[in-house]
Amino acid sequence: AMRLAALLAALRPVLPLVLGLSLGCSLSLLRASWSQSGGEDPCLGAAGRPGALAGGAHLEAADGRPGPGHEDFRPRIVPYYRDPNKPYKKVLRTRYIQTELGFHERLFVAVLTSKATLNTLAVAVNKTVAHHFPRLLYFTGLRSAKVPHGMVLVAHGDERPIWLMYETMHYIHQHFGSDYDWFYIMQDDTYAQAEQVKALVTHLSINQDVYLGRAEEFIGGDEQARYCHGGFGYLISRSLLLKLHPHLDSCRNEILSVRPDEWLGRCIIDFLGITCVSQLQGQHYRTYELAKNTEPEKEEEEDFQAALAVHPVSDMTLMYRLHKHFSRIQLDRAYREIQDLQMQIRNLTSLTPAGEAGLTWPVGINAPFLPKSRFEVISWDYFTEQHLFSCPDGSPKCELSGASKADVSEIIESALEQLNSRYQPLLRFSKRQLLNGYRRFDPTRGMEYTLDLLLEAVTQKGHSHVLAKRVSLVRPLSKVEIIPMPYVTEATRVQLVLPLTVQDLDFVANFLDTFAMNTLDTHDNALLTLLFIYHPYDAQRVNQVDVFAGVKAMVGELEKRYAEIKIPWISVKTEVPSQVKLMDIVSKKHPVDTLFFLASVWTEINMEFLNRCRMNTISNWQVFFPVHFQEFNPALVYRGEQTASSSTDFLRDGHFDRHSFAEACFYNSDYMTARTKLAADILDRDEVLESMEVFDVFLHYSGLHLFRAVEPGLVQKYALRSCNPRLSEELYHRCVLSNLEGLASRSHLAMALFEQEQANST
Predict the structure, then answer these.
(1) How many CB atoms lie within 10 A of CB 401?
(2) Could you give all domains of the chain from N- to C-terminal order, each with its CATH number?
(3) What is the pTM of this model?
(4) What CA–CA distance (Å, rounded) separates 326 from 193?
(5) Is residue 311 a contact partner of residue 291, using CB atoms and an 8 Å limit?
(6) Are 191 and 323 in contact (CB under 8 A)?
(7) Name one GO molecular function term (predicted).
(8) CA angle 605–610–616, rounded 5-degree value
(9) CB of 437 within 8 A of CB of 400?
(10) Which of 30, 42, 334, 713 has the most beta carbons within 10 angstroms of its beta carbon?
(11) Residue 420 in contact with residue 428, Cβ under 8 Å?
């Protein structure tokens, strides 16, 4: 009995599991016996055929193969077969995954314009709503029309209205029919609320043939047939456009009409049997017809406030007034929605585990970033109305100007506006002075401000009082937008340019070995050009003693080892090796489409970085200046101990050298364009080039994006750089700072000083 009790006690924890498994197995066996029992199958047909179900589907055949009608429901493995007699062709993938998956853009907008309104109403449309649509084109019948700035115009060469409509539909189908789901056609005397049009298409199904607009009756036609009035715009789905295109020629020859919108509506009705509707799938296409001498600011009708399209717009001024009025309506609606959401958040906060203590300010905005250590603390920048005390160049004080000055002025105005809206009519505030200002950028929520304002408060009776008040404001991060970037590949050839001086001779061998191992052995698409910089004294003795003879011998050995590779070199004589002057020489000897990588002798080339150089450098768009990782002096860091060899901590004992701009990736065409602007600015003052680097040329004389980022794939061993005192004071100072900060970290330097003091004391 005791043994049985001990056994039951040991099995008690697993008893539920055993019972569950037993019950599951029993139910499975019972179900299998029911399904295999004999008897007449109730799903068989009347004649007892095991063929067809009542709904028309088919059962499987007796051998387990799918019967007719089941082909689409059972997956099949299609074996890959390649004919050995045919040459192998590499499969080319599409550039973008959305192309391969068959995704389409949402909305295309076509604006019909004319000679009389191209430079007036069409320009007004372009300035008001064009930037809200993803793609907008203007269509006209003019020949060789002069296109206003910032507009894309398609000229058909025939001003007849019907012909313009026919050519426009044909052009849209030919060039955009396979790229967009919806096509919105409007006239230039129409004001359309772009955001509402975009919201409308997001609520409509693309699987239907849609012809949506303001439905109008044909004159003397069928009472059931409707066409969409062109003045108020209309929406056509992609499926309808594809079905309509084969009939456009017949419509042009057979249908007579004066109005192009009537002609298109008749064409759609006669050949597709689809009429215009003003309501579809629960969505209403609301319009409003403007009367003469209408004042948009005074219109209070509900139909006008809710209108998606307004017509006719007689002049540019009215177009701008309409845009201002509807923008104000949308802004007020957005503020009301924000207030409603904030109220809901306040009501729901009490039900959360944190309670009301978890409510952040402003309501609905992310909480401030909480640092986990002192190194993650975000510092505040101090400013006044005239000066900024955290300057980009590192100086302690600089004048407040440009975007920073506009930012401070706007924040002060916003603070006064908020105070007056809260305390009026009891108090009215006016600014006397900004006592103190603080701001910081929190990446989790936006720009934060704290202002100490000296204010004058005036009561309703006219009494005034001066007081100081502290206010806090947040400029939250708005909706994140994806910036379109040109397409680049990793197949571009990189031309490495390596400037060498006499002081660099000790490091050339390691650079060439790394280059051969990581690029030549791997057959990477990269070439190397050496730039030998001779001092005038060494240049005079080059026939007797060539200081670069050893480097040239190494290059010869590489060319023997890799017969298909040639490593050219260029010899330059100068006392001041200006980076811009050297680049001028190299630029003239290469094609304009060359992708340069300006390297230093301490750079360790690898395929990972070269690919990032290709991807981050875009012709006529962006240049790339990587921040390399500089290892510390091992004598100070390790002090005789073994260096770290683990691949996980190779970035531990060093820092990213932000003072160095020696490495750069850019296209020759972009450099030549910026260099031409620089030459026009400095005229014949070549001494200015000695105080500039390639980074300065692109920064001040090009409109390109300058991408400056840390590059963990660009690691340099420690070496004491030689700083040329003949360069400008700024470049020399930057070189000295790079050497000093590259010695060791603060903790390592403190330990070295401590050990030195210990040694001196003993």
Answers:
(1) 11
(2) 99-324 (3.90.550.50), 381-476 (3.10.450.10), 494-640+649-749 (3.90.550)
(3) 0.60
(4) 8
(5) no
(6) yes
(7) glucuronosyl-N-acetylgalactosaminyl-proteoglycan 4-beta-N-acetylgalactosaminyltransferase activity
(8) 140
(9) no
(10) 713
(11) yes
